[in-house]
Every structure is written in C-alpha cells, then in structure tokens.
Amino acid sequence: MSSIETIHVDGVWLPAASGATREVLDPADATTLQLVSEGGADDADAAVAAARRAFAGGAGAWPRTAVAERSALLRKVADLLQRDREEIALIESRDTGKTLEEGRVDVDDVTNAFRYFADVVMNESGGRVVDAGSADVHSVVVHEPVGVCALITPWNYPLLQASWKIAPALAAGNTFVIKPSEVTPLSTVHLIKLLVEAGLPAGVANIVTGAGVPVGQRLAEHPDVDLFSFTGGLASGTKAGAAAVSGAKKIALELGGKNPNVVFADACATEEGFDTAVDQALNAAFIHSGQVCSAGARLIIEESVRDRFVAELARRAERIKLGRGTEDGVECGPLVSQQQLEKVAAYVASALAEGAQLRCGGSRPKPSDVRPATGYFYAPTVLDGCHREMKVVREETFGPILTVETFTTEDEAVALANDTEYGLAGAVFSADTARARRVAARLRHGTVWINDYHPYLPQAEWGGFGKSGIGRELGPTGLDEYRESKHIYENLRPAPVRWFAG
Length: 502
Description:
Blueprint: E1 3-4, E2 7-9, E3 12-14, E4 21-26, E5 31-37, H1 41-55, H2 67-83, H3 85-96, H4 100-123, E6 128-130, E7 137-145, E8 148-152, H5 158-172, E9 175-179, H6 186-197, E10 205-207, H7 212-221, E11 227-231, H8 234-246, E12 250-254, E13 260-263, H9 271-286, E14 298-302, H10 306-318, H11 338-353, E15 357-360, E16 381-384, H12 391-394, E17 401-407, H13 410-418, E18 425-429, H14 433-442, E19 447-450, E20 469-470, H15 475-480, E21 483-491
Helix pairs in contact: 1-7, 2-4, 2-5, 2-6, 3-4, 4-5, 7-8, 9-10
Domain Aldehyde dehydrogenase: 13-488
Active site: 254
Pfam families: Aldedh
C-alpha cells in the first residue's frame, strides 16, 4: 500500500522530513486502512515557521483581512463540508469505528460550527466603547488575533474537535498548526484540503501528522507558538499544558470527564417516563461505544426504582448490535484500538475484583455474534453495586462501561454526582421541574442536561470544572479564547500635563 502525504506546510503537501510513515488501522478488522506521513519535531518546526510568516505578513495577510472576507471563507468551507458529507462520514466511520450515521451527524455538526463562527464575527461591532468620564477622550476595547495557534485533537471525534478549534481560530484571524491524533488523522487531513480549496492563503493552515511525542510535545514547548489548545486525556494534557505554560503561552485544555446521570424515581412514574429514562441512559453510556468525553458512564439512580431500571437497562444493552460501522443495522462499532480494548477489559476486571456485580457484557463478544470477528469489539457492560472508591467509578474508562450507584435523598444524589475530580457534564432526570432545575443548579459540571443527554449547541460554551480542563470552546467565549483584548485610549485634546516643573 502506498502512503499519502499528510503533512501540509506553507501550502504544500509533504512527506515527513525523516521519510517515516505510520499505519492507520481499521478498528473493525485490524487491517491497514492507510499509510500516512509520520512527522517529527523538524516537521513541527517547519509548520510553526510557516504559520508565523503567514501571520506576520503584510497588509494582505490573514490577520488583517476584512471580517467579511474571513466570514465568507468559513461559510464556503461549510458548503464544501456538505458537498463531501458522505465521503467524509465514511472516512470518519472507517477511521474511528463509529457508525456511518454518527459520521454524518459529525459532519453536520462541524458544518454548524463553521457557520456559527462565521456569523459571530460578522455580527460584532468595531469594539467596546469605554466611558472615560471626559468628552475629550475616546476609549475603546478591540480584539485582535492571538497569533500562531497549536491545536491538538483527540482520536474519538477528530473532525468535530478540529472544527471547534479551527473555526474560531480562523474567524479571529489566527494562523495555526494542527496535530490530529495519530490513530485517527484522516478526516482532519480532508478538512485541511477543503480549507485550501476554499481559498485560505498558504501558511495559514498547517497540519503535521505524527505522535504526541515528539510532535505534540514540540508544539507545546515551541517558543514561537502563542496559544496551545489541547483536547485529550488528563495525564497527557496536564503534561503538555505544563510545557506550554512554562513558555508563557495562552492555553486551553479539555481533559475529559467522569459524568453522572442522575435519575429520580419520579422520572419513571409512568411507562413512557420509564422507557425514556432507560433509553437515555443507554444513549448516555454507549454512543460511539462509550468513547465520548461527556459519556454518562455513572448512572446514579434512586434506590426505589433501581432493580427494575437496571434489569431493563441490562436487557436492552445486551441487544445492542455490534459490527462494522458502515453496515446497515449496526448500532455500535468497535473500540478504536487494541490498546483501548485492553484498557476497557482491565477496568472491568478491576471492578469485579472490587465487588461490582456484572449485569451484562463484561467481555469481548463471541466471534459468532459480531462481524468482522477480528475487530476491537467489546460488549456493552453494566456494572451494578458500584461505589465511589472503585477505580472504574473514579477514572475515565472511555469504553462501553456503565456503573450503577444508588441514592435515597436529593442531597445524597447531588453529593454523589459532584464527588469526582472531573466536572465536564452531567444530567438529571425528574418529572418534578422545580427539583430538576434545583439539582442542575447544584451540579458542578460545565454542561448539565435536564431530561436529555448529549445534545450541544455551537452557540453555547463547552468545557468543564475541576480537572476537566481550562477554558471553553464554542459560544462567544470559544471565540475569545483565540483573541487578545487591546485598550486604545485617545486624547482628543492633547495638552501639557505639567507633572514636572521643568
């Protein structure tokens, strides 16, 4: 299989400086999907240099283009995404293992992100006028691009997470270097091609495919990078963030979550309510085989309905159809890699050793139950009788594992939901509107859903409390992450100050 050039620097597609390549695997059957360029520190340096030249260029450089021009380009990219919707969805499905329909939803969400930030920058005024208390002074606060941005994205939603960074970075007038996960780089490569097709000047958008060490590490510590934005795991994110902070860079980190789904008994008082709560619990935990930073992996359910709820949850979980994401009828694809498969199996083993009760799953499916049998599949797993001291409850498992904890009072439910070092997202299900809103207000999580799970809006900020990260993506704040504020104070009637007698 021939390799494709996946390093894009200063408008040119290149092999790695070292000539190295990497196999990108199809997680559904563990075969090679594509050979890509395996970049290193030298490639990262070249990409940053190109981004710096593009940022520091003359009057026609991207940071100094009219807002209307930047907005128009983002809209053109959105149109191109829709043109290539099926092709990109297929790339995303085969690369990550998610279903083809999930891939289509991702492309639509990415399209919406580009259109949202195109609208935001167009609707802004020329700055915020500040009342200086004198008619002789004109004072205004304006926003300018940060500069060269280093963007690191994860393997579970490569295209979506790239858009959350690229769209606001470009809208604000920045240049960037992006390093997608080495496991799932293909859709991001396609997005860069669309940016080029849309007319983005050379050097504004650069991509280096390769491993976190050395590429991500070099971008984090590079002295000519002005902003470092990372989405991924807590351990690698804090290490990279520390390197970036040591260089006095602006940083934004989204580091995952361990997200509670709180279900009150009154949500299950009717058959329709019960069905909805069970269905949403499955949706919360098992979409994309649980490989979601906001997955509702902790079911916290009122004791009085626990037995019936968990029994039905396990019954339905056992019926989830596993298989290649591009096949009709498949509801969950494989895990992304052998490493992730082993990680998930280890979490289940530790939970059982600590006293959890296995209600369903807990192993790879039988070869006769899934096709292809060689893929990285793991059965949706429900673990009952869990408690906060268990490793599987404390740590982000990033797999199809749902733990069950119980409560008897509202205060206990809130305490359990907040008893985590993370704080990305959570949900509360209740037929009592006042209670649901009261509990939502008390949850220390960046996004809280009431009687729903997983939807997000590009116009609403996304990010977490605690160790879930620093900063926000999406919404107006998501644009501000990529800008610096500048105060311009103009004296309209200059005169001597006479501070010194002279």
